[in-house]
Design a protein that fits this description.
Strand content: 5-15%
Number of helices: 23
Biased composition (Low complexity): 414-426
Oligomer: single chain
Biased composition (Polar residues): 396-413
Region (Disordered): 392-441
Largest sheet: 3 strands, antiparallel
Pfam family, one: PORR
GO molecular function, one term: RNA binding
Strand order of the largest sheet: 1-3-2
Radius of gyration: 31 Å
Distance between the termini: 67 Å
Shape: globular
């Protein structure tokens, strides 16, 4: 019996190919296509981040700020050199570390108000230096940061008062130093001047010595007082409310208005109040407390924005036990996550209108001037060159007593300058052609 069962004829039946088996069961009730059709769509923070209503003005602003950040990183590389300039070969070597994905020559040619390319008179190679206009703005920003030290101290004290134990990690503060308006050397220059407010018991922890109850007022509370006095709204409408501003084209689902109205009236523990005195057991009230903490943290920054990955470093000191991306996407009228630029950035929607800050501060004003140089592009370069040539002609015409030798020297200088400019233009055209060929490939 066994010999008949395992004979060559019966073994051929069991050695069916997988394709034949698929064809045999393709008409079953639970085949692969029906299972794929019955499968529920994935609903996660990533899918909702892609399918949400976008704010194109804020996304465009983040792209412009990314180009400004790249320009400032190149400025840092150039300023670290001994003679204040860097060759294009050196910048090409540092291109990947900076995060520049385009050709270095095309990027430098794109912003002539910031970078000046010339031929070195001795080495005869192409070099780059920062323009006087950009250098003045960088120095102005550093001076404004030093002058606004009292405002920075108030921001640090407010952040430490919001933390659970009055301490913050120094690494987390270092990551958002630009957002808070702190200078790079704040640890050695600013903190020793305010030892009555802060202490460094350990090298990596900043501790608040004493609370200041005069600072324990959130920015949203000031907005509520203004709404209550100017619009004459009822107290229960504005006592626990947040400013809500949906992006253009946002479609509110059915029943969401009523839910939002009930959420606005829901009481919660304020950011500067200790949660231990009034423990929260309701999930919605706990969520609203976290929204208040994030709102106050973003309000304490200079430009009302913080990268999302750096914001996650404050989850433990602020007792944020929820998924930040899920929470931010749940309140699109208060926060906006921009995926443009190099990273995901959280912005406070109420603080911006048409891509500009509604209440600018001195630090933001200087950075906006830098951004204007990025937005200017190549505009105004031809007019400035013509103005310089006219000034040179007027100066030559006014000096009638000069000899022919000086005229010959001027002609030689102008010829060498034109040769250097033509060589720079040919080099930049070659770099742009190489970049376009690489893109075509």
């Amino acid at each position: 019996m066994a010999s008949k069962l395992f004979s060559r004829k019966h073994l051929r039946i069991f050695s069916l190919k997988p394709q034949m088996l698929d064809e045999a069961f393709c008409y079953g009730p639970f085949n692969r296509s029906m299972q794929r059709r019955w499968k529920k769509p994935v609903d996660s923070a990533r899918t909702r981040l892609e399918s949400r209503t976008r704010d194109h003005r804020l996304d465009k602003l983040m792209i412009q700020l990314k180009n400004l950040r790249l320009a400032l990183d190149l400025h840092a590389v150039i300023s670290q050199q001994r003679n204040g300039y860097a060759s294009l070969q050196l910048l090409l070597r540092w291109r990947r570390e900076i995060g520049l994905n385009t050709e270095i020559g095309a990027f430098l040619k794109k912003y002539p108000h910031i970078f000046e390319i010339y031929v070195h008179p001795v080495k005869r190679n192409h070099c780059c230096r920062i323009t006087r206009k950009m250098a003045d703005l960088v120095g102005e920003e550093d001076a404004v940061l030093r002058e606004n030290e009292p405002a920075v101290v108030r921001r640090l004290k407010k952040l430490l008062m919001m933390s659970m134990d009055g301490t913050l990690n120094m690494h987390a503060l270092w990551l958002i130093r630009k957002e808070l308006g702190l200078p790079d050397d704040y640890r050695s220059t600013m903190l020793p001047n305010h030892q009555s407010h802060f202490s460094l018991e350990t090298p990596d922890t900043l501790t608040l010595i004493a609370r200041d109850e005069n600072l324990a007022v959130a920015s949203v509370e000031e907005w509520r007082d203004k709404e209550y006095t100017e619009k004459l709204l009822a107290e229960y409408e504005t006592k626990y409310a947040f400013p809500v501003n949906f992006p253009t084209g946002f479609k509110i689902e059915k029943g969401s208005r009523e839910k939002l109205k009930n959420w606005q009236r829901l009481p919660y523990t304020k950011p500067y109040e200790k949660n231990d005195l009034h423990p929260i057991t309701n999930a919605e009230r706990l969520e609203k407390r976290i929204v208040g903490i994030l709102h106050e943290l973003l309000s304490s920054t200079v430009e009302k924005m913080v990268p999302l990955e750096r914001l996650s470093h404050f989850r433990r000191p602020f007792s944020i036990g929820v998924n930040l991306r899920e929470l931010l996407l749940k309140h699109p009228g208060i926060f906006y996550i921009s995926t443009k630029g190099s990273t995901q950035t959280v912005l406070l929607r109420e603080s911006y209108n048409k891509g500009c800050l509604l209440e600018p501060n001195p630090v933001y004003s200087v950075r906006r001037k830098m951004l204007d140089l990025i937005l200017a592009g190549c505009r105004g370069i031809v007019q400035t060159e013509n103005a310089i040539s006219l000034v040179e002609e007027d100066s030559q015409g006014s000096s009638h007593g000069s000899g022919n030798h000086t005229c010959q020297v001027d002609n030689m200088n102008s010829m060498s300058q034109s040769e250097s400019e033509s060589s720079v233009e040919s080099f930049l055209e070659e770099s742009c052609c190489d970049s376009s060929e690489n893109r075509i490939r």
